[in-house]
Specification:
about 140 residues, single chain, alpha+beta, Arc Repressor Mutant, subunit A
């Protein structure tokens, strides 16, 4: 999976500004499976536009640069569909909580239990974000 596929997947559901895409990566469902800075996202949007995978509508803003609302093109949908039909390999997971479990015998169980509860809340929040995206 590449950053472009994640961006195209978001745009396949609804047109978004670069800011809105970056916000999804920072706070929403996108951050569950991919990390990207605002700079990386805008750079990728430029490439996608040059490749004909996205277009944008410039919306004038008073005293600011025009806001660009990006939409996926039919060529972008084809790129995403082609990627979706290809087999993928599992990605190695680097998860601190797994290592904490491995070494957890060295500390009070309360510490590990607290971290598991905290993570459970984070995952519940991510699941809520996923439901939001699946219902759009």
């Amino acid at each position: 999976m590449a950053l472009k596929h994640t961006i195209l997947a978001f745009l396949s559901r609804t047109p978004l500004s670069g800011y809105e895409i970056a916000k999804e990566f920072a706070e929403g469902f996108g951050g569950c499976f991919w990390k990207a800075s605002q700079q990386q996202i805008y750079s990728e949007l430029t490439k996608l536009e040059q490749q004909g995978h996205v277009t944008y509508q410039a919306i004038p803003q008073s005293g600011r640069l025009d806001k660009k609302i990006y939409s996926i093109t039919s060529q972008g949908q084809q790129e995403l569909t082609d990627w979706l039909t290809q087999p993928t390999e599992p990605t190695a997971i680097r998860e601190d909580l797994g290592v904490m479990g491995l070494a957890g015998h060295l500390v009070s169980p309360t510490i590990i239990i607290h971290e598991i509860a905290r993570r459970r809340k984070l995952h519940a929040d991510m699941a809520q974000q996923a439901r939001k995206w699946m219902n759009t």
